[in-house]
């Protein structure tokens, strides 16, 4: 698990202002070709397939 | 699943796909690839619904008038176990 110091001032987080939330814009990348599987998962976008596993999201 | 349930399930899957694409398009209204996907699945859904309407009963009133008979009343009622 990365510690909070690992995020500070590194890469994408370098010039992010403090105390402001930021949500990455989704790009139309991949779509599940098996729509029945997507239907059971609950999204057609693999990027949004983030099942909660009790501690943190997978994927 | 018999033929009717399978077709209804497929309509549900395609409809779900359109809803998810629609959610994406809400925030990306000019994304051409997403638009193409949406129009593609809208076409498929229309065909599946028309097929279901012919074989079993209309899912929406738009498919009810098959020229010879107003078939909107053919659909089983929810309180008669009509919901698949």
Task: Produce the secondary structure layout.
The complex is a heterodimer of chains A (59) and B (84).
Chain A: H1 4-7, H2 35-41
Chain B: H1 3-27, H2 32-55
Describe the structure.
The complex is a heterodimer of chains A (59) and B (84). Chain A has 59 residues and is an all-alpha fold. Chain A contains two helices and no strands. The model of chain A has no long low-confidence stretch (mean pLDDT 82). Chain B is mainly alpha-helical and 84 residues long. Chain B has one domain (3-70). Chain B has two helices and no strands. Chain B has helices spanning 3-27, 32-55. In chain B, helix 1 runs antiparallel to helix 2 (32-55). Chain B is elongated, with a radius of gyration of 15 Å. Classes of the chains: A mainly alpha (59), B mainly alpha (84). Chain A binds chain B through residues 25-26, 28, 31, 35-36, 38-39, 43-45, and chain B through 12-14, 16-17, 20-21, 24, 27-28, 31, 33-34, 37.
Concise overview:
The complex is a heterodimer of chains A (59) and B (84). By secondary structure, chain A is an all-alpha fold. In chain A, 19% of the residues lie in helices and 0% in strands.
Radius of gyration based on Cα positions of chain A: 16 Å
The total beta strand count of chain A reads 0
Name the average pLDDT of chain A. Answer: 82
Q: What is the number of helices of chain B?
A: 2
Low-confidence stretches of chain A: none
Strand content of chain A: under 5%
**Multimeric organization:** heterodimer
Low-confidence stretches of chain B: none
Helix content of chain B: 55-70%
Give the overall pLDDT of chain B as a whole number.
Answer: 91
Task: Tell me the major beta sheet of chain A.
Answer: none
Alpha-carbon distance between the termini of chain B?
Answer: 11 Å
Run of helices and strands of chain B: HH
Helix percentage range of chain A: 10-25%
What's the Cα radius of gyration of chain B? 15 Å
Question: Outline of chain A, from the CA principal axes?
Answer: elongated
Strand content of chain B: under 5%
- Pair with the biggest interface: A-B, 11 and 14 residues
């Amino acid at each position: 698990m990365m510690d909070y110091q690992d995020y500070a001032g590194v890469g994408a987080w370098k010039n992010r202002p403090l105390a402001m939330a930021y949500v990455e814009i989704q790009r139309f990348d991949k779509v599940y070709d098996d729509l029945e599987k997507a239907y059971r998962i609950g999204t057609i976008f693999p990027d949004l397939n983030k099942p909660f596993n009790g501690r943190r999201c997978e994927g | 699943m018999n033929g009717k349930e399978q077709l209804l399930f497929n309509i549900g899957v395609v409809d779900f796909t359109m809803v998810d694409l629609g959610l994406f398009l809400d925030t990306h209204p000019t994304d051409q690839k997403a638009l193409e996907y949406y129009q593609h699945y809208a076409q498929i859904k229309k065909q599946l619904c028309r097929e279901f309407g012919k074989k079993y009963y209309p899912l929406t009133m738009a498919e009810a008038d098959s020229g010879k008979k107003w078939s909107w009343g053919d659909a089983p009622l929810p309180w008669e176990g009509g919901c698949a």
